[in-house]
Write a structure and sequence with these properties.
Blueprint: E1 3-9, E2 12-18, H1 26-38, E3 43-50, H2 56-71, E4 75-79, H3 83-91
Parallel strand pairs: 2-3, 3-4
Antiparallel strand pairs: 1-2
Helix pairs in contact: 1-2
Length: 115
């Protein structure tokens, strides 16, 4: 099960995914896209810091969110990519399909981004 929290702050809609991002959550993801459609945001940040596993369906859902943003002339970036998710993106040759935003370091040090 994945929890998707969508918050709007100013011009940014932040979506925090919690749990595995797989085909099993597609219906919830579709509802999230419907909700994003009603939000007046200039960019979407998709935070994956609490996602432990992603499969090809999850990658497809992220691409759908990116396409949704592009159709609305909105920016879209991924944030908080953990090692397992990053490895899956790399193996699927999908890492170059997304924009990545640095993740703020909780200790206040330099921000990190998947590399």
């Amino acid at each position: 099960m994945v929890t998707m929290v969508c918050e709007q702050g100013g011009e940014t809609a932040l979506v925090v995914f919690q749990g595995d991002l797989t085909h099993a959550v597609f219906d919830s993801f579709s509802q999230l896209l419907d909700r994003l459609h009603t939000i007046e945001a200039e960019r979407y940040i998709l935070d994956l810091s609490e996602v432990g596993f992603i499969d090809s369906s999850g990658i497809g859902m992220l691409l759908m969110a990116q396409d949704h943003a592009e159709q609305r002339a909105c920016g879209c970036a991924l944030r908080g990519i953990g090692p397992a998710v990053w490895q899956t993106l790399m193996q699927a040759h999908a890492s170059d399909l997304f924009f990545f935003e640095p993740t703020p370091d909780p200790d206040g040090d330099a921000a990190t981004v998947a590399a």
